[in-house]
């Protein structure tokens, strides 16, 4: 095992705007020789929604629809830490992100070797996840969007990490003061706007805590690997540990 940590910053906005701004500021605290940081911009290339074809069962967990999903899924699987940054849409997460999660959750259930005939199951993937969101309004649904993503983490057998209270409750959240512009948060930050300073601070806390947690998980897996090897739901995490 090395102490190398693969970080994926996943921005789920169709435009280069406020989510990008928060993600960039947040990832500023992630530096060091053992970190490999990649970014992915979901929403800027076409990604189809799940059409419930069920073909992934016969395709060993591969999604029949070929688009940007496969590239993103591979980066997602490679990562130890995934930081999602996304705008609030309709008091929830954007459709592009939901489409990715639907296809990921369904197809990965048959992606890992299992019984013959294969049965649906997600191993304990043990990735650390942090969430950063922002919307145009103060009570615009940030908490709802964050809660949705917490369930995503649990569903994928991953570990969601908040920042620190009182700035970050279940993830980082901000609002653009009612302005719809792409640069709204950047401008508010430049003006020293208190809420935006807190949004940036909490986004950075989320990244810091996620990195720490990933190191703790890796160390724990290393120490416990002989015991855990007897439980195949840890197979993915242990294989990844020896490959990193
Ligand atoms: C389709 C759509 C739905 C939106 N719904 C909400 C909402 O429910 N609550 C909110 O606070 N802002 C909402 N907004 C505003 C965006 O969250 C806001 O402009 C945000 O800063 C966009 O982030 P971005 O610059 O990263 O794209 C919505 C915007 C769009 C385009």
Q: What does this 3D model show about the protein?
A:
The model has no long low-confidence stretch (mean pLDDT 96). Helix 1 (18-27) packs across helix 6 (194-228) and helix 6 packs across helix 7. 41% of the residues lie in helices and 14% in strands. Strands 1, 2, 3, 4, 5 and 6 form a six-stranded parallel β-sheet that branches. 40% of the residues are buried. The protein is of the alpha/beta class. It has one domain: 3-Layer(aba) Sandwich (Rossmann fold). Bound molecules: flavin mononucleotide. Flavin mononucleotide binds at residues 13, 15, 17-19, 87-91, 134-137, 140-141, 176, 180, 182. Flavin mononucleotide is lined by residues 13, 15, 17-19, 87-91, 134-137, 140-141, 176, 180, 182.
